[in-house]
Amino acid sequence: MSAQTQEPRNPRRRAPIAITIGVVAALVIAFFAFTGLYADVLWYSQLGYLPVLTTEWVSRIVLFLIGFFAMAVPIWASIQIAYRTRPVYAKLNSQLDRYQEVFEPLRRLAMYGIPVVLGIFAGVSASSRWEGALAWLNRTPFGSTDPQFGFDIGFYVFELPFYRSIVGFASAVVLLSVLLVIATNYLYGAIRVSGREVVISKSARVQIAVTAGIYLLLQAVSIWLDQYATVTETGSLITGAAYTDVNATIPGRGILAAVAGVVAILFFITAIIGRWRLPLVGTALLIVTSLIIGSLYPWVIERFQVEPNAKSLEAPYVQRNIDLTRDAYGVAEVEEIPFEAKTDAEQGALRADAETTANIRLMDPLVIAPAFQQLEQFRQYYQFPEALDVDRYEIDGETRDTVVAVRDVNVSGLGDADTWFNSHLVYTHGYGLVAAAGNQRSVDGQPVFLQSGIPQTGDLGEFEPRVYFGEGSPQYSIVGAPEGNDPIELDYPAGGDNDRQTQTTFDGEGGPALDNLFTKLVYALKFQSEQIFLSDEVTTDSQILYDRDPIQRVQKVAPYLTLDTDTYPSVVDGRIVWIVDGYTLSDQYPYSNKVSMSDAIADSEGVAPTLAFDEVNYIRNSVKATVDAYDGSVTLYAWDDEDPILKTWQKVFPATLEPMSEMSGDLMSHVRYPADLFKMQRAVLGRYHVTDAGSFYSRDDAWTTPKDPTEGANTTILQQPYYLTMQMPGQDAPAYSLYSTFIPEASGDQSRNVLRGYLAVDADAGATEGERAEGYGKLRLLTLPEDDNVPGPGQVQAKFNSDPSVSQSLNLLKQGQSDVINGNLLTVPVGGGLLYVQPVYVKSTGNTSFPLLQKVLVAFGDQIAFQDTLDQALDVLFGGDSGAAAGDETVDPSTPTTPPTEGEGEGETPTTPVVPSDEVQALLNEAAQELQNKQAALAEGDWAAYGAADAKLAEIIASLLTLTGTPDAPTTSAQ
């Protein structure tokens, strides 16, 4: 009996404990959430961008509340009205009685819980659209209108998506309301189904009819807005409204909107008079009308009117697509230059292009990274990236292209020494920037370093070499110490036999201060590391550095930007800074073709990650950003202050962007035309270089970017664009440029790897403080004639690979278990034609080996040369004297050029490959040309020219026999 009296008390005893545990758990979760938010406040505040964070938070909170109440209140009101107007004495069947018995204890919870849960989901959804809401509130007109409706383009970019999202949200609220109203009325007997008869009470009828009428009014507004969306939708032919859209779809949507409005009125009438026939007939009419006007009529117009006359009927709309696509991608002003490319390598042909020839880059930044690692890493706790960057510096009054990288810290290389103390307090930063000449190599094929070593030496002057913020920096480091304390951070190894180390203490403002116990606790929780809280080395003078990747830092302070996938380091005004390009994008530019950005920017340099904003049809390089490698400070410069999207965000975050006038001349000399923007533009110009609507429709001159020839025959990887200093036709002097080539667009066996276009942009912004160079961003497109079969990169690579003399030399280079690596295949417009240049590297199979530049392949027309240096190769290619110096003439040809293989240094002697001499190669090229002349003369029946070519060929063969010491052989005539 006593046990029975105690049992009921147990639940009551357990209830306070459960409540206490729940409260404590909620407080712990809330505290963890608070610490994360507080850490964000500290990070943004230290960096000077706290308004960015607070603006986002306030926007999200306001939108969450709007979304929550906009969903919860109508849902709650609908359920309450349905419940309070229920029939008091409704006759229910037994099944509904059982439902009510189950539901009644939970009724109050459901009536409030359902609106709250749906409101939370709606609030979260609304808060995620804070950027669109702020852009709408601060919208800026574009100043140009669409050709169909005459609205400012800003209406489509800022307003139409916002209005459609509002209508869609409201439609979801009303639809959920009407479903819950029907369910509530059915549960409480206001709606009864008796056989084939449905009985609805007056109150239920009024509520359902009014709610349905509101829903149909919203659909009418949605259909009406859909008219305008036709100019941004992608059809089978173009993006934008084509003939069928303009003459059938748009008028049809206007009619459907009117019909939906009429049916909505019929529902309101039903709420008054109580007859369902009119709205039901109206709804059926709306469905039939939508099928006929929305689907059938446009199909008839397309099938029987447009398809038989598509080229003429679609021409005006195709022209709209061409013009607005070129505007949206910034290629409307591209200068097209007809280019009759020469294919005969004549002696002295490069004399007029001597400056361009001297800047041809032989060091491939995607190949020589192991050389940087082996020659400049020095310790296992340093690292270099797998892909290096290209920059340029003025050295001794001459601007030189360079391959650069920072020597970053690598705590994973510490091995057994990878303790918390070492990883976060001692090894805190990298040291120095390494730069190699782009067009030179040492005698044995190594890079020629212009800036190198620890401590730093070189031609780039004095600068702060420490890199606390880099692409490979540790997750976090704790730096700083009280004045007078012995430094504990490793600065750099001093070298020598005793392997001494130099220590330093960070003295900048690079991260939040750990100046109190609470802040230490916050970061100990954030990084799940109790040592932050307990370590005696973490003092009130300590700072914690984290989120150190330059792209990550810029993205956090400028969330409205899409950033270039590649950042690069430069020495600017005595500091190493990372330069990051930022883009403003849209997918709502009327009549502009949409391009997948992740597909367009993926090439041999790297496969781009899937972007959150991928399908775009408008892009501007609106912001140049810098991140100081020492203190992590971020500066945003408004590079394109005419961009309406950037102007809009300047209104949202008015104090975060500096004008371009604040950029120093040194910084201007290192910013460049960004590669991702150029890749997007080349993807567009493959088709939109054609400005005639008829030709565009026929697609008889569509181009594509060639596949990377160094990746193999079956590759799908596109060839990347390359930075080079060169002089394009139409330029007065060479300029730092970015280029890419085009071949005909085709597939399968129809593909022809011949050049059809050569696109280059002036990437040099000048060196004047706050003033962009006049030519910067100028696009030039060389267009080659259809009947001019200048070989494309694929053909040239195939010719290199199949040439017997080249194959023989390559086989010699491969001896000793070495690998031969083909570098980037560059295309340079010189000598009135297009010169191909490819460095060839040799790498032994040892673990510590790295590629050495040993040979250079060149091609001009159908002729090729393969020599130790670019200078020699050009002279051989152009009849013994190219007329220009390539800049790598300092290589000593008498030095063995085969890199050491494993085992060398132990008595083995490296082998020097035997290759044809310069004179022999030049005569072979002449012989190849004379053979072509003979074939051409034979085809035309010109026997005099045939005889002259044959006689010349005989002379060349005799000279070859003399040079090579080959015994005279009987000659045979071609039959």
UniProtKB/TrEMBL annotation:
It comes from the Bacteria. It is found in: Cell membrane. The chain crosses the membrane at residues 15-37, 57-77, 109-128, 166-188, 208-225, 254-273, 280-300. It is a multi-pass membrane protein. Keywords: Cell membrane, Membrane, Transmembrane, Transmembrane helix. Residues 884-915 are annotated as: Disordered. Its main location: membrane. The keyword Hydrolase does not apply. InterPro entries: UPF0182. PANTHER family: UPF0182 PROTEIN SLL1060 (PTHR39344). Belongs to the UPF0182 family. This is UPF0182 protein GCM10009749_31030.
